[in-house]
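The records we work with from here on pair a chain with its fold. The integers have meaning only within a learned vocabulary of local backbone shapes. A complete example follows; check for yourself that the lines match position by position.

:::
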Amino acid sequence: MSTWSCYYGQQDKTEELARFDLVVLAVGGQNPVPLRKAGVKCLVYVSLGEVHADSPYYAEAAKSGLLVSYNENWNSWVVDIRRPEWKKMLFEQIIPDALKAGYDGLFFDTLDSPIDMQRRDPDTYKGTERSSVELIKDIRKHYPKLLLCQNRGFDIIQRSGPYVDYFLIEGLSSSMDIGTQIRSDVTEKDRDFLISKARAALKNNRKLVVLSLDYVPFDDVKNIDKAYDFSRKQGFVPYVSTPELNQVNTYAPAP
């Protein structure tokens, strides 16, 4: 594969998305069926580390005492990923519900949130990293034929990398502030860290495909070109959009 896209919008963007080899879609968003018929691999978004306050699973997660920290940026709650009740919800409700429309695989998001809880309070949240890796291993075992993509989770990617097909790096070259929509370059130090983690993951899984997602306004062609060029030079597969991911950017400079 050489192209990919991430689209969480609700409008039908089949024509635009059919240009890509791989797309990541939201539950209840873009219909994956016509895209799969066109030969596009479709992954569906699944939050492994958080539950949104408007989620149909929120009430049960709260009742089970799984919610440990509020994320005001996204109006969501970090869950205790170590708890068997969370694993049960994922395997019996959340993942099966996400796959109902018909997809080729799963896109794992928000793993950084529970892992960060262990980093901040290692005594209280001891074992969170290990549980995160075990969860991905269990999902691979349960769904051996699905394509799996891990977003971030740099602390565990060396251990979880052998069980996933794709690893996504957000903000490799360029980022945007959600509130102000102001774009900024990623520092060289941060870029070196991201690349080193990807390289380490590739050592444990030579077939792993590393994706990059940079945030640049659609009219800023100069910085879009720079993001694509830098990612490709690392051997990664790039895509550039805006933080809302509710539009499809079909512009991509030639390799």
User: Anything to note?
Assistant: The radius of gyration is 18 Å. The longest strand covers residues 41-47. Residues 76 and 156 are 22 Å apart (CA to CA). The chain has a mean pLDDT of 96.
